[in-house]
Amino acid sequence: MRRRAFLGLGSNLGDRLGYLKEAIRGLPDVVRVSPVYETAPVGGPRQGPFLNLVVELATERSPRELLETCRALEAAAGRTRGVPDGPRTLDIDVLWIEGCEVHDPDLIVPHPRMTERAFVLVPLRDLAPELVADTFREPTADELTPYVPTLSTP
User: Which CATH class name applies to 3-132?
Assistant: First the structure.
């Protein structure tokens, strides 16, 4: 049975947009992709801004299979997990899966902090406004801005 699922993707090292695009190409069952937002890092050491987006899937994969896919894509992008909340080439979180709750040490669905993070809620609202509470506070431009890549001239 196909279920609606949402993944959050972020990158703040190297070719941020390139890592996100490559990850989307590697994801199964993609239905829609939110706009990209540039966001201030939350927690961790001092680091550069992130590019974030949310992907909607219509999938038959289990939460565990989705997590394994996410980790494989992170590894392919050269993700290392040395510093908690540190800079990363690619970060993919399983946010929500229709009709699923998971409470494993390495996977909690719905994601336990997604309702606290504007970098998740704004792109999620673009795809599924019914999943974002009416009490959500709009982030300031310093926290999150729509991302429009700068076109370089020769």
Answer: alpha beta
Q: Can you give the pTM of this predicted structure? A: 0.88
State yes or no: is 93 an active-site residue: yes
Q: Distances in Å between the alpha carbon of 73 and those of 23, 70, 149, 151?
A: 6, 5, 23, 27
Catalytic residue among 3, 79, 125, 126: 79
Q: Compute the radius of gyration of the chain from its Cα atoms.
A: 15
Active site residue 29: no
| Domain extent listing, the chain | 3-132
Q: What is the pLDDT of residues 26-72, one digit of tens each?
A: 999 999 999 999 988 887 778 889 999 999 999 999 999 999 999 99
Give me 106's structure tokens.
């390495």
